[in-house]
Design a protein that fits this description.
- This protein has 385 residues and is of the alpha/beta class.
- The protein contains 13 helices and 16 strands.
- Helix 8 links the parallel strand 11 and strand 12.
């Protein structure tokens, strides 16, 4: 087989990084509006911004910026929330497909607890729009796939959750949502769903939590945050193979708490990293790596000293192979894995001592060299730039 050969000399070459949780419409106000906790932040800033995506001209302007910056960074695959607007979500998927990146993109479902302009008219309308969206995009793209996206339990009525269950069974597509992000959110869910013993059970009741036991089928599911998950909830995530998208920047910015990632790693939960823009201020998974290490140190020091901090190699694993598993054999240079790669020139970081490859990589990530140092990127063997 005649394959091209590229010589990148002394550059660092490592697997592409995975963002398991990012909100594309929130990218427009990243780095702003960080003065509130989760539920107030959603109502004051997030929902008003997402209302604007009814206007396709605005959506196109905003999503082009988002996609272009995702293309430039170290992220090669991602799980993306759009808004509840069908046409704007299709537009985002078209732009992501053009980028060459691989992604799951979800039209958000929400029929309660949002602004009048953003909430969908009813569960039936939400389901109808979701069916229309999936039929419009299913099989249309090579690299961009639909993912079922109930925003979170507070925004979805029982009827909507039942209809989403039917949609998932009909199309067999994955699921993404939020889980146990803040204490206030959990109390709200308890008020709305008193029959469920814990938050995750409200998804599991509708077979949207890793498995559909009625038909003995796996339902690939990623839940963002899991900061305050109870032992029962963690046990069910482990049993059902639910992925955790750890979003340390967002959890700090919105004062949600610190997820016990060492505990989850010790239990062999499926875990990756999420930037959670705009709760997180940056789409950089380099930043998510360093944040995850730092917050785990704070958890060990100030919350539970039985759980040692994670180290750089573990955080790097979460950013690559850990999150990559959601997409298949992704996130490693092992045999039979899809070839996603980042080429990083770290020569601008001068140093007097001899550094090995691991030291160079750690330094480049801590010093945010993804902003200026990436000069080649490959996704599934295809060169993006």
């Amino acid at each position: 087989i005649n394959l091209p050969l590229y010589d990148f000399k002394d550059s660092l070459i490592f697997p592409g990084m995975i963002d398991l949780h990012i909100h594309a419409p929130q990218y427009s106000f990243r780095g702003m509006c960080m003065d509130l906790e989760l539920m107030d932040w959603l109502n004051s800033y997030t929902f008003p911004e997402e209302e604007k995506y009814e206007d396709l001209d605005y959506a196109e302007k905003a999503y082009k910026i988002f996609v272009e910056n995702m293309k430039k960074g170290a992220t090669t695959r991602s799980c993306i929330f759009a808004t509840r607007h069908r046409n704007a979500t299709i537009l985002l998927m078209e732009l992501m497909e053009q980028s060459g990146l691989i992604s799951y993109v979800g039209k958000v479902n929400m029929d309660r607890e949002a602004s009048d302009k953003l909430v969908e008219e009813s569960a039936d309308v939400s389901a109808y729009e979701t069916f229309g969206w999936i039929n419009a995009v299913n099989g249309k793209f090579q690299n961009t796939k639909p993912i079922l996206t109930p925003r979170f339990i507070p925004c979805c009525t029982d009827k909507l959750m039942e209809e989403l269950r039917e949609i998932q069974m009909a199309y067999g597509i994955p699921v993404q949502s939020h889980l146990s992000e803040s204490k206030g959110e959990i109390e709200f869910v308890k008020m709305l769903r008193p029959e469920n013993p814990f938050y995750g059970d409200a998804y599991n009741q509708y077979d949207l939590f890793g498995k559909n036991d009625d038909i003995d089928t796996d339902v690939k599911t990623v839940m963002a945050h899991c900061v305050w998950s109870s032992d029962e909830e963690v046990e069910l995530m482990l049993k059902n193979g639910v992925y955790v998208a750890h979003c340390p920047a967002s959890n700090m910015n919105l004062t949600s708490g610190i997820a016990p990632i060492r505990k989850y790693l010790d239990l062999d939960l499926k875990i990756g990293l999420g930037s959670d823009v705009a709760g997180g201020q940056s789409e950089s998974i380099f930043r998510a790596i360093t944040d995850s290490i730092q917050v785990s140190k704070m958890y060990w020091r100030h919350v539970n000293q039985n759980y040692k901090p994670i180290v750089f190699s573990e955080a790097f694993f979460l950013a690559t192979k850990g999150g990559g598993e959601f997409f298949g054999k992704v996130g490693s240079f092992e045999s039979d894995y899809e070839f996603d790669a980042i080429v990083l020139d770290d020569s601008c970081l001068e140093h007097p001592q001899q550094l090995n490859v691991l030291q160079r990589l750690e330094r480049a990530i801590y010093l945010s060299l993804d902003v200026q140092g990436i000069f080649a990127k490959y996704v599934n063997g295809n060169q993006i730039f």
